[in-house]
Amino acid sequence: MTLNRKPTYTFTDLNKDLNDLYVYLKKEKYTEKEIKNLMLPLTSKLTEENKTLLKILHSCLIFFLVLAVIYFFTYWDKFYWNLTALTRIFLIKILNLYDWRYLKNEMCLIDKNLFQNKAIFQQELAFECDLCESVQNLDEIVYNYEDIDSDFIERLLKLDRPILIRGGIEHWTQHSPEDFVNILTSDVDFSTSVPCKLSSNIFSSREDSTEAKSLIFKTSFFESFFLHFQNCEKRAVRVFRNITSRPDIVPDVMSPVTLNWLLWSKNYNVSKFKPIDLVEKYTMIGQIFGGIVLKLIPRKNCKEICAVLEVPLYENEFILFSSLWDVEYKPFGKGENLGAVLEIKG
Hints:
Elements: H1 11-27, H2 32-38, H3 40-73, H4 77-93, H5 118-125, E1 142-144, H6 150-158, E2 163-166, H7 170-173, H8 177-185, H9 188-191, E3 196-200, H10 212-218, E4 225-231, H11 234-243, E5 257-266, E6 274-276, E7 282-289, E8 291-298, E9 309-314, E10 317-322, E11 325-331, E12 336-344
Parallel strand pairs: 1-2
Antiparallel strand pairs: 2-10, 3-4, 4-5, 5-12, 6-11, 7-10, 7-12, 8-9, 8-11
Transmembrane segments: 53-73
Keywords: Membrane, Transmembrane, Transmembrane helix
């Protein structure tokens, strides 16, 4: 049995009928204005839909133009580093509300099961505490530079074990603290930079100038001080990296150095440890002059399982560790102490 189907009325048919109607009306001596009024119920509907579409397209165009302008401005160093500085400040401010640091190593920022099973999500974020529970004292992590190689270091870092190495940064320690600081401040890219995460007993947040050269100059007025800060401007990171380059023994996986810190003190005898707010996957701390005591603190779920390690770090020694550990330091009380921290993306 054959079904009788209604013929399809296409847009072409509609267009032909409208044209025929238009021709007929013109023959009947209708004016253009009269024809327009006759067609108003149809054209007003089409016009309203077009206006809505145009508004959406207009909004999208403005949005993408703004993004394009911001993108091209990021090629301008001053704008780029001010934008990143503001972003860093925002991220630091929300750390008390949400610890986002684990996300830097994640392939996906939003887990699809986040709202389905929070317990599973928290378990995925946990560190493997079996890797650190057996590390109980300093002797288990100390090695001489000449006794190990980069493959050995890489294997230990993959197990989240800290490694303290005696020797290997002679190219850092060839400078006295005064010469080291003079090399930095003689370069305008460093001296005019504005450091991040500044902490000191000789600087007040009410002061206007926080340029590196201003901060370092103030130390000359004090017999007892401490000063540490993070170089977060690209130009300052580059200058600092030139005189604190990675030792050859450090494995290639520990690159690039994205941020670095200056730790400087003189006759500053305190009992309280000072935290260093790290964000990258790996960290290297090297002692250029004098010494400090480091406290390595297991993070998150490993706090109750793994031991807190107190590690003295002397001149021409450096330590490598992963993001399983938070770190605090205390300078030696007598004399001058100068150290550098390298944050490595990995």
